[in-house]
Design a protein that fits this description.
The protein has 11 helices and 6 strands. The protein has 3 domains: about 70 residues, Rossmann fold, CATH 3.40.50.300; about 140 residues, Up-down Bundle (Histone Acetyltransferase, Chain A); about 70 residues, no CATH class. Helix content is about 45%, strand content about 5%.
Length: about 325
């Protein structure tokens, strides 16, 4: 709740009402608390044993349909609201939106004809992948974060829009770019080998049916013992010091390691009070690439999960330093 002073109106936003389970009498105490406020404009201060009158407020609520841990809201509470239903966008709507975005971007920036022809293919393939993930990768207690929506589709194209014609010169590079962005948006969220294999099989099928590329999984992905490592990588690290930065495919891993070592030395000269001495093994390089990509995107965000001392802060600080971002 946001309090109001001097008689000013108070707006109360309630986002995605996912209250505790229904109790044995069929009610949810938090919902009944809000209903009391709406019905009588009062709440009770239980420790002090007196009631408080609340005036000049407005409720704005947003909620998803019941299911997945969400219980239906009681009619006694819902009768206070005008309910507006916003359905999920259909595949036709998504295709129309992102076809326009891709055609404008590729045409305005004068990409090659082969790359332009892949724009519509990438849209169709991404929507197919999004649909399959929503169908087969449903949230359960062990993977409660498997929630895929239109924002994930837009993130794939947001990554593609970071490129320039110099870094994507033909359709094969564009196809690998699409695969890389799908890995960052969908694959990086997966938690076990079975789910990651589902992504690999789906990606290989879409590459064959949509892009007409017959690459094997061994050519595109890492082995079963290296599930989290990236074989197809795009990053803006190699030319991070250049005036014209390029989001490009990393084809020479040794050159990437050399750049990271040089930037670590620059970091240590800049922040002498807290120097870092990192060893750039493959997992560390992959995580820096992921973090740097996210930091370069508008409203980019990530949650790093790991045991204490695994290097989350160090990798984030170096990735921030690469893009001249402030890290506190």
């Amino acid at each position: 709740m946001i309090g109001a002073k001097g008689g000013a109106k108070c707006l109360i936003f309630i986002d995605d009402i996912n209250m505790p389970r229904v109790e044995q009498y069929g009610s949810q105490p938090p919902i009944e608390f809000l209903r009391l406020l709406l019905d009588s404009n009062i709440i009770y201060d239980r420790p002090q044993f007196f009631k408080k009158v609340i005036e000049n407020y407005r409720f704005i609520c947003a909620a998803a349909p019941p299911g997945g841990g969400r219980a239906p809201l009681t009619p006694r509470f819902m009768r206070h609201f005008h309910v507006v239903s916003i359905p999920n966008a259909s595949e036709e709507v998504l295709t129309s939106i992102f076809d326009t975005v891709m055609s404008e971007f590729l045409g305005k920036n004068m990409f090659s004809d082969g790359v332009r022809k892949c724009g519509n293919i990438a849209v169709a393939a991404t929507i197919d992948m999004f649909t399959q993930f929503n169908k087969h990768m449903l949230p359960i207690p062990s993977r409660f974060h498997y929630l895929f929506n239109m924002r994930d589709v837009s993130k794939v194209f947001q990554g593609i829009l970071m490129t320039q014609p110099q870094s994507v010169q033909d359709s094969k590079v564009f196809t690998k770019l699409w695969l890389h962005e799908c890995q960052r948006v969908f694959h990086d969220r997966l938690v076990d080998d079975a789910d990651r294999q589902f992504f690999k099989d789906l990606a290989q099928e879409l590459l064959k049916t949509k892009f007409k590329e017959s690459w094997t999984q061994e050519e595109l992905f890492t082995t079963d013992t290296e599930q989290n490592r990236m074989k197809v990588t795009f990053a803006m690290i190699l030319k991070c010091d250049y005036e014209e930065k390029l989001y490009e495919q990393i084809e020479d891993p040794k050159r990437l390691v050399k750049v990271l070592e040089d930037k670590m030395l620059d970091y240590n000269f800049t922040y002498t009070s807290s120097p870092m001495h990192l060893i750039f093994f493959q997992d560390a390089i992959d995580h820096i690439s992921r973090i740097a990509r996210i930091l370069h995107q508008p409203r980019g965000n990530a949650m790093l999960i790991g045991v204490s001392g695994s290097g989350k802060q160090s990798l984030t600080r170096l990735a921030s330093f690469l893009h001249e971002a402030e890290c506190s």
